[in-house]
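Final report, Chapter 2: Outcomes

The project's central promise was a pipeline that accepts a single protein chain and returns its three-dimensional structure in a standardized token representation, suitable for archiving and comparison. That pipeline is now operational. To close this chapter, we reproduce one record exactly as it appears in the project archive, with the input sequence first and the structure output second.
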Amino acid sequence: MTESLAQLLGALHAERVATWEPAALQVNIDQRQRLVDEADPAGWVKVGDRAPAFSLREVDGETLTLADLTTQGPAVLIFFRFATCPACNIALPYYARTLWPRLKALGVSLTAVSPQVADRLLEIKRKHGFDFNVATDADAALARHFGILYEYDEPSKAAALAKGSFIGDTTGIGTWELPQPTVLVIDQNGVVAFADVSPDWLARTEAEPILAAVKALSLLAAE
């Protein structure tokens, strides 16, 4: 039986509970809980919103526009944090196994999107051999438009700096901002037909609701 994404990410958290120093673990838990507690869904992208006519750089060099991605059907966008994010290295391979083959059979595009600069973002595509798009959202402009950015809280900044790490150096955009894990399905008219935003980066969208949203659009198109 295929493990759910929730099970896979739960196992990551359990491994951290078993191996991380308690103080470091608590900073991680507290940041995630703060994001949940302070989440303001009113500011997030919603079903019925019109997507901007965006342009993204695919890590292999191609320019991807919304018009390109919706030529044959709806477009699925998966926003993730950065190439070496452990949870992202669980979530994206999960989508590659459980979602992408079915989307491809329907002629639907899949694009994983991060603000990380392309030369660093290429790592996750190469590591897992993804044959779907992995693209850079320059300066997090699209994530900002959709209202899904968050910033490290002060304890998380302090913990990162104590280890000599600054997420702005990792992403290449020079800020403490990252996108909250988000899945969007955008129809051929540029309208958001499905939106799921998770302020906790260890809670992410399963494949089945995404596929259901895509199939619902296919049924509408056939009527």
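Archive annotation: The chain has one domain: 5-222.
This record, like all others produced under the grant, will remain available to the consortium after the project formally closes.
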